[in-house]
Every structure is written in C-alpha cells, then in structure tokens.
Specification:
single chain; alpha/beta; TIM Barrel; Methane Monooxygenase Hydroxylase, Chain G, domain 1; nine-stranded parallel β-sheet; 15 helices; 15 strands; globular; binds 2-acetamido-2-deoxy-beta-D-glucopyranose; transmembrane
Length: 490
C-alpha cells in the first residue's frame, strides 16, 4: 500500500467524520406548537410529526394537559409557556408560582417530559398591549425562578421571556447602534441582569415578514437570504439579510451593558403563506429554507459566530388566532391544519423533508355552497356572508391571497363552507336564510382550497358551536328539554 493511498484513506475517514458532525451535530431545530384552532390534530399525532421531521425542540404557549402528556418520554425538549393573563397573579403571589411549578413543571418532569425552559409571558411589551404587563413580567419571572429553585429544578429548567424584537432598536439602522427601546430601557436592563444571574437565555422573536408588511418601502430581497441590493454597512461588516442585522442589533445591545455572552434563543421565526400579498407558498419556502440553510452552516452571525438555537413559527396553522395583527396570522404553519406539508422544506435532519401527519380522519366529502338558484341581489347575502366570516375564517379571501381570484358567487360559497366545516358539517350551519345548499362536488380551484375539517377528539366541537351558532344553541336547548321530559316521565 502506498503512502498516497493511506493518506486518502485518512482524508476519507476525516470527511465522513465531519459529515456525521454536520448531519448529527447541528444544534437541532425547534418549532412553535400553538393550539388556537377549531379542529386541532390530536396531540399524539403532532408529537409523531415532530419525531418524523427530526424536530428536537418544541415551544408551547401554555401547559395544556393533553399536549404535555403526549410529549412524555418523547425526548423532545420542551419550552412550556405561561400566558400573559397569568402574569399579574404570578407576580403578586409566590404561592401561585409554587402551584404553577408544581402542577405544570415538576409533575411533568417526574413523568418524563423533557422540560428545559419556562417561557414567562409572550411578547408582553408589545405596544398593542398598552403597558398592561410592564409591572408584572419581571416579578412573575422572579417568582417562577424562585419556585423552580425550591422544587430543585433550577439547574435543568431555565426561565425566559419571549420578547418581540421591538424591545430593542437602532436609530441609525446599524446593529452597532443597538439599544433597548427607550420606554422600557431600565426594565429591559433589569430583566437581562436577572436572566444572566440565573444562567437563563434571552429569547427574541424576529420577523422580516412583519417589517415588509408594515413598510411597503422595505427592500423585499433584504428579508431573504440570497443577497440584497440594499445591504446595511456597519463598520467593516456588511449585512445582506435582515435576520443577521436584527439579531446582531440585540447582541450589540447586550454587549453594551456587559452581557455580550448571554445565550440568545430565537423564539419565533417564520413566514406565513396566506392572507396578504407577500404571504404565499413561494416566499414562505424561500424564507424558511433560506433560514435553515443559513443556520445549518453553524457559522452564526457576524457578532455571534456559532450555532443558532431557533424555533420555527409555526408548526401548524391555527384558524382561531386573532386577526388583529393581520389576516396572515392564521397561516404561519409549515403544515395546514390537517397536517399536510405546505411546501418542501429540508430541515437538515436525517429524513430531509416534512412528513405528513399519519391517520388523519376527515369529515365527509361534502361542502356548503351558495345555491345556484339564489340571487346575488338577495338582501340576505351580505349579512349572511358577514356572519359566516365573523364566526369562521375568511382570511384566504382578499387581495392577492389564495382565494382572491374567486368571483362573487365563489366568495360567498367560500364563506358559507368555512362556517359549515368549522361547525362540523352540521346541517343547521348550512342554512343562511335558504341561500345555501350542500354539495358533493368539490368547489376548490387550483389555488383556492375549500377545506373539509377533520374529526376532533371530542367528535363534536360544542365549544365553538355554542358561541357561533344560534341554531345549535336551540338544538342544545331542545336536547335539554327532552332530557328533562325523560326524567319527568320516569
Ligand atoms: C397549569 O397550566 C394550565 C395550562 O396553561 C393552566 O390552565 C393552569 O392554571 C396552570 N396551573 C396552575 C396551578 O397555575
Ligand atoms: C390601548 O389604548 C388605546 C388608546 O387608549 C385604546 O384605543 C386600545 O383599545 C387599548 N388597547 C388595549 C388592548 O387595551
Ligand atoms: C431596576 O432595578 C433597580 C435596582 O433593583 C430598581 O431600583 C429599579 O426601580 C428597577 N427598574 C425597573 C424599571 O424595573
Ligand atoms: C370577495 O371577497 C373579498 C374579501 O371579502 C373582497 O375583497 C372581494 O372584493 C370579493 N370579490 C368579489 C368578486 O365579490
């Protein structure tokens, strides 16, 4: 054997070794799992999806029992959430904090849920919250930390506060001029100090999509990762994508106050697929794949070289999210509500792509549509459509959205069908003053899907039905009457 052959053998071995490092050694990718949906997939199905996709970390917005139980012994790292409306109570009562930790952390850890973080609040300093959580977030954080310590969990479970990237800014747009937002400057310093003292990470949500949505002059290519005609030059560093610049604005801010090494987690990052002219499959694929490729190199950002710990936003669409921020809110998922991947996405994990949910059970193949014989001039059309849209989901109807090209009758049908499906195809929910009818012919077009809902665990969604349908209230009322009648006749 010649020296040359020996040499290339070792080179080969080294290459294989580095390849294994690349494949198995990337920090792992996380996903946000929210449940504000009328027809959520069963938690066990979702956990299987996470496993199939090789997603190793999940971020929750609460601690729902079904979700937590499904994560038992999955090995998946969990960031469990505390909703903002609990902050006031947790801030004022150490007892409440102890109870929260006992019920929602200790017991699940003992059962084998791999809880690693507690997210105290969710973007509590957003301007839209009107300072509601300004005085409760830090005390709640302190009380939860205290309770974790008392429970003996403080070395394995870290606290954090997922914050919107608007808690810091740069007047010049250059990352090196970064600082905390002036109205919460001292509060942010105290929170950062507290996180640092407790070995806890700073969590930030970064959204180039929102920058584009809020500012029509925002350079579109700067939102993505393929280079830009409008780079930001900061000293010797040139930023060609908004993510790096935004992330580094935070790093500069932290550094300015002596926290340059504080761990940072990207709590949410993603791109929606519908509900706005810039929310579509092509842009979402381009952004998320660009981001995955960007972090898979492990190079990090100019100011923070190394692996980036991030949670994609989000795993699955949620049709009951508030649309106050915009119609796109219900379309952030990598998957549609029923667990179908929306586009190809290579997460850099062993299997390469997104795997569809298994054993999903759909309702019958039928749709509620505007009656062919009904007239567009009928005075009941407008109020019926408004009613359907208020109580169901019409966020795919609008300028340059997936169903934006329907003609008037299609629009009406879309609204009626959404309401009918959300109410589990109950006949009563396809009335609309006799303007609607049920059909077996799929009204979908090439871009616009008329959904069929999935079966939910409870079989029938009383919760949403009760608040959305007067007809069903009557059904409940009459069932109650006949029940009473039965009791009386016995
Ligand atoms: C535990 O979490 C659930 C879900 O977020 C919440 O409803 C419940 O109040 C929490 N328990 C305590 C004791 O705070
Ligand atoms: C915030 O304050 C503004 C102005 O006072 C008000 O119009 C808005 O409804 C408030 N929003 C919330 C969420 O309280
Ligand atoms: C920050 O902490 C200091 C020292 O404990 C305290 O005096 C100050 O009031 C705090 N400020 C805010 C806004 O929390
Ligand atoms: C369909 O509905 C959308 C959203 O409500 C509206 O903007 C559009 O004008 C409607 N199109 C027609 C043809 O009525």
């Amino acid at each position: 054997m010649t020296c040359g052959a020996m040499g290339s053998f070792y080179v080969m071995k080294a290459l294989v070794f580095y390849w294994l490092l690349m494949v198995g050694g990337v920090n792992g990718i996380g996903a946000n799992w929210g449940t504000q949906a009328s027809h959520p997939l069963p938690p066990n199905t979702v956990v299987q999806m996470l496993k199939d996709d090789g997603i190793t970390q999940v971020k929750l917005f609460d601690a729902e029992e079904g979700t937590m139980n499904a994560l038992t012994n999955s090995g998946i790292e969990v960031m469990v959430g505390i909703p903002n409306d609990m902050l006031a109570m947790l801030a004022t009562s150490t007892k409440a904090a102890e109870q929260w930790v006992s019920e929602n952390a200790s017991s699940y850890v003992n059962d084998g849920v791999n809880i690693r973080y507690v997210a105290v609040g969710n973007e509590p300093f957003l301007k839209t919250f009107n300072e509601s959580f300004l005085y409760t977030t830090l005390p709640a954080l302190q009380n939860i930390q205290g309770a974790l310590t008392n429970a003996g969990l403080s070395s394995r479970v870290k606290v954090t506060v997922p914050l919107n990237a608007d808690v810091y800014q740069s007047a010049s747009d250059r990352p090196s001029d970064g600082d905390f937002r002036s109205d919460i400057h001292d509060l942010m310093l105290n929170i950062t100090q507290f996180l640092s003292d407790n070995g806890a990470p700073f969590t930030v949500n970064i959204y180039p999509f929102i920058s584009l949505y809020d500012n029509p002059n925002f350079p579109v290519d700067y939102a993505f990762f393929d280079g830009t005609s409008s780079p930001v030059v900061d000293g010797s560093t040139t930023y060609t994508n908004m993510f790096d610049a935004n992330f580094d604005t935070l790093i500069w801010t932290l550094k300015k106050y002596g926290f340059g090494n504080l761990p940072v987690i990207v709590g949410e990052i993603g791109w929606p697929t519908d509900g706005d002219m810039n929310a579509n499959l092509q842009f979402a694929q381009k952004f998320n794949q660009g981001f995955m490729n960007h972090i898979s190199t492990g190079q990090g950002t100019p100011m923070r070289p190394g692996p980036i710990n991030a949670y994609l936003f989000s795993l699955i669409d949620e049709d009951e999210k508030s649309i106050q921020p915009g119609n796109f809110e219900r379309h952030w998922g990598l998957y549609t509500f029923d667990g179908l991947p929306k586009y190809q996405l290579n997460l850099g994990t062993s299997n390469g792509g997104l795997v569809r949910a298994k054993n999903v059970r759909y309702l019958d193949k039928k749709w509620c549509v505007f009656k062919p014989s009904a007239s567009l001039d009928d005075a009941n059309v407008a109020p019926s459509v408004s009613y359907a849209c208020e109580n169901a989901d019409c966020t795919s109807l609008g300028y340059k959205t997936s169903c934006g090209n329907l003609e008037a009758r299609g629009n009406i049908s879309y609204a009626f069908n959404s309401y009918y499906q959300i109410n589990d195809q109950n006949d009563v929910a396809c009335g609309f003053n006799n303007l609607a009818t049920i059909t077996n012919v799929d009204p979908s077009t090439s871009t616009c899907k008329f959904e069929i809902m999935i079966e939910t665990d409870s079989g029938f969604s009383w919760r949403s039905s009760l608040v959305t349908d007067k007809g069903i209230l009557l059904v409940v009322y009459f069932s109650f009457l006949s029940f009473m009648f039965l009791i009386i006749s016995f």
